[in-house]
Amino acid sequence: MLRVAALDLGSNTFLLLIAEIEEGQITKVYADEIEMVRLAQGVHQFRRFHPEALRRAENCFRNYAEKIKLYHPDKVLVVATSAARDVENKEEFFSLAKNYGFNVSVISGKEEAELTYLGALSEGHQPPFVVIDIGGGSTELVGERGGELKSCSLDIGSVRLTEMFIKKHPVEERIQNQIKNYILDFFKKETIFDKKTSVISVAGTPVTLACIEKQIEYSPEELTNYKLTFSSIQKIRKKLAGMGIEERKKIKGLNPGRADVIVSGALILESFLEYMGVSETVVSLRGVRHGLALKA
Fold first, then answer.
1. Counting beta carbons within 10 angstroms of the beta carbon of residue 127, is it exposed (0 to 12), middle (13 to 18) or buried (19 or more)?
2. How far apart are CA 115 and CA 11, in angstroms?
3. Tens digits of residue pLDDT in 52-72
4. Dihedral, CA atoms, 193, 199, 204, 206, nearest 10 degrees?
5. Which of 137, 153, 156, 288 is 20–30 Å from 44 (CA)?
6. Which of the listed residues 109, 140, 159 is the one where a domain comes to its end?
7. DSSP secondary-structure letter at 9?
8. Is the pLDDT of residue 217 over 90?
9. Is residue 281 pLDDT above 90, yes or no?
10. CB within 8 A of 120, min separation 6: which ones?
11. Which residues contact 47 (CB under 8 A, 6 or more apart)?
């Protein structure tokens, strides 16, 4: 039996899982935390971590270090993803993390996708399926094809697309169409999966859309394996796009920290289902942190 703390330092959110691992299974979860950090703020334009983003990161490191001390894990594993792959001042970020005892490994898009897939498998999903992991800076796709695990990492994330295309809210239909065409171009050029394969979606975007549809706050019991249809994603996206940010923040199930990027995130998911020719996706609450813990 191994007690593990696994941190996934994403472009939009930092996630912490503290769990017991036994015989390749997560047998007990002590903590599963999420903080909106927006590490990718300005990264697409300036290729540097913004001072405000680093301050938010440090606050999160402080909080997570205190939480981890309560459980005395045997291992603490920390990975950073898209934003940390793209910047010039990553050493500044690493130094902040070390101040709180965290040694950060920057993983490739391929490694990120494989950890996500392992996390989804641990929830009991049976192949063949394709996992889409919509992050702030990138989107990872991973699944089996011809008996092999295939993956790709695309530079389309909810924060990245928002900073590239959306200058005001509500978001005009013309801008939404531009974003969707941009996303579909990536899928058409880069994806390697058979059409009509089942799609499992992970990370904050699908979970948030499911919460909005069900009109609930985050609840693992109600959200695990929840099915989101293409038509419901499209309907919610259009409704959200027609609102200002402050109006969106009042919607039940929508974390205020996602209010400005949820339209872009929804467009990524909607576009992928359209590209794959499927009418729904299964929402998974597992991801990189679970895969990381299982590989400990």
1. middle
2. 16
3. 999 999 999 999 999 999 999
4. 130
5. 288
6. 109
7. E
8. yes
9. yes
10. 129, 131, 200, 202, 284, 286, 287
11. 86, 87, 88
- Average pLDDT score over residue span 270-280: 97
pTM: 0.88
| Range of the structural domain that residue 258 is part of | 116-288
Domain CATH code at residue 23: 3.30.420.40
H or E element at residue 135: none
Within-domain flag for 141: yes
Q: Of 86, 109, 132, which marks where a domain is finished?
A: 109
CA separation, residue 210 to residues 15, 107, 215, 287 (Å): 19, 29, 8, 17
DSSP SS3 for 46: helix
Give yes or no: residues 104 and 120 share one domain: no
Give CA 205 to chain center in angstroms. 7
Mean pLDDT over each residue of the chain, to the nearest integer: 93
| Alpha carbon distances (Å) from 284 to 123, 127, 184, 213 | 8, 14, 23, 16
Distance CA 94, CA 49 (A): 11
CB-facing half-sphere around the CA of 261: CA atoms within 13 A: 29
Query: What pLDDT shows up at residue 194?
Result: 86
Q: What is the mean pLDDT of residues 240-263?
A: 96
Question: What is the identity of the amino acid at 190?
Answer: E
pLDDT band at 85 (very low <50, low <70, confident <90, very high): confident
Q: What is the pLDDT of residue 82?
A: 67
